[in-house]
Amino acid sequence: MGMKTKIALGAVVGIAVIGALSANAGDGDGDAKSDNRTSASAGEKTGGASEAKPAEDKADDKADDKAEDKAEEKASQAEQFKAFVQKNGTPKEKDAVSHVTKVQGADEQNDILDAADVYTDFTGGIMGEGTGPAKLIASSFADWKDSENGLVTIYDADGELLGNGQF
């Protein structure tokens, strides 16, 4: 009788732990989505205090912010990654990243198990010409994105593995 009780108690505790982890993971996703309020609504929530800027400047700032947000949304993950490396990378990193054709999974991070895929126009798989540059691409990706537990995988034009790295 004691062994059956221990197994049942262990199952209940396991289910409770899994439920708590999934609830915490859901909270993290909601925070990013719920922070889409305008500065006017933020001012109303703080008691209606307004900034020292005139109304015209506030409207101009909102328009500029919206234009920047739309430009970032329109740029693909690959374009954002290439732009970052062009600004911050070494000449060898810039050359390696110029072969990137597609990036997937870089925008969804939860610091539990983040995985991103980078596709290139190299050929030949792990024995081909892209193995060396793949390490540079993975290193550049780690500079661009930061995660507590992330893995970036680099693929060639045929979808064969070239390399991977942590970010």
Describe what this molecule looks like in 3D.
It is elongated, with a radius of gyration of 23 Å. The protein has a four-stranded mixed beta sheet with strand order 1-2-3-4, with helices on one face. The chain has a domain at 77-166. With 167 residues, it is of the alpha+beta class. It is 56% helix and 14% strand.
Search tags:
167 residues, 6 helices, elongated
* Uncertain segments: 27-54
CA radius of gyration is 23 Å
The biggest sheet amounts to: 4 strands, mixed
Secondary structure: number of strands: 4
Shape: elongated
Strand order of the largest sheet: 1-2-3-4
Query: How many helices?
Result: 6
- In terms of DSSP E residues, the strand content is 5-15%
- Average pLDDT number: 76
Structural class: alpha+beta
In short:
The protein is an alpha+beta fold. Helix content is 56%, strand content 14%. The protein has helices at residues 2-34, 39-45, 55-74, 77-88, 91-97, 131-144; strands at residues 100-104, 114-120, 150-155, 161-166.
Please write out the topology.
Elements: H1 2-34, H2 39-45, H3 55-74, H4 77-88, H5 91-97, E1 100-104, E2 114-120, H6 131-144, E3 150-155, E4 161-166
Parallel strand pairs: 2-3
Antiparallel strand pairs: 1-2, 3-4
Helix pairs in contact: 5-6
